[in-house]
Amino acid sequence: MSRPVCITYDSTCDLTPALLERFQIRTVPLTIQSGQRTFPDDGSYTALDLYADYQKDGTLPKTAAVSPEEFKNFFAPILDEGFDIVHIDISSNLSCTCQNALLAATEMEAAHRIHVVDSRQLSTGGALLALQGSKLRDQGLPAAEIAEELRRLAPLSDTSFVLDTLQFMWKGGRCSGVTALGANVLKLKPCLEMREGNLVVCKKYRGSIEKVYPQYISQRLAGKSVVEDWVFITHSGQVSEETLRELTEQVKAEAPFREVFITQAGCTVSSHCGPKTLGVLFLRKE
């Protein structure tokens, strides 16, 4: 008889406490470094704090991966509870967190009970895998089979965001000042998507971000055969409740999802993309 399975993720999955509890997913936090201050990425330092600090002194925080030792300390008590672990991480192309999880697992006596999955995704694009993992766990599948299925599903996660500004990307060294200035002058709103584990520009919209959101959502959903369980609308803050309600109704009208979850991205996404960034994230069938 197989052991019970615990689904775990690093804190970049951007799941709310309510969703973590509902789907019985445990998380291990990355570390946020803001000036001389250090915080675990567990909600104690929020995107609102990040934006306030940026307005005050123009500095952006840095995120540090979970270390192998931190992973060992995270995995050990779960193993002691009698669980096998399916652990999912942010794309290994974006962070060394996944490599550190693999290293920690191989150095533990119960290495055969820890199955590390590289999501190849970011934010709730990877969280979709965790939710599917929870579904398979509840169906009684063993950890190895769950991990194998999640690796198959990883390329089918449709992960993208549309940005209101390139200022934060420029400050973080991810685009040139000329590009950021040009986008601002021309009122261009770039759309970034995950491709083969990397975040790339796939389209540019023009106009106010509030007018761009509906265009972006329609184009992301158009012509795609979706896994109907769940879809996320994930944003980085400063998006009005009315706008979120309208976009939720649009998603429901344009695709047959059973549930629409609205979540706010943590500091990993927010520090790179800035306020009013928004994404619609879902699994494709093919």
From TrEMBL:
Q: Which PROSITE patterns match?
A: DEGV
Task: Give one Pfam hit by family name.
Answer: DegV
Under SUPFAM superfamilies, the record lists:
DAK1/DegV-like
Q: Tell me the NCBIfam families matching this sequence.
A: DegV
Identify the taxonomic lineage of the organism of origin: Bacteria, Bacillati, Bacillota, Clostridia, Eubacteriales
Q: What is this protein called?
A: DegV domain-containing protein
**GO MF annotations, alphabetized:** lipid binding
Any idea which UniProt keywords this protein has? Lipid-binding, Plasmid
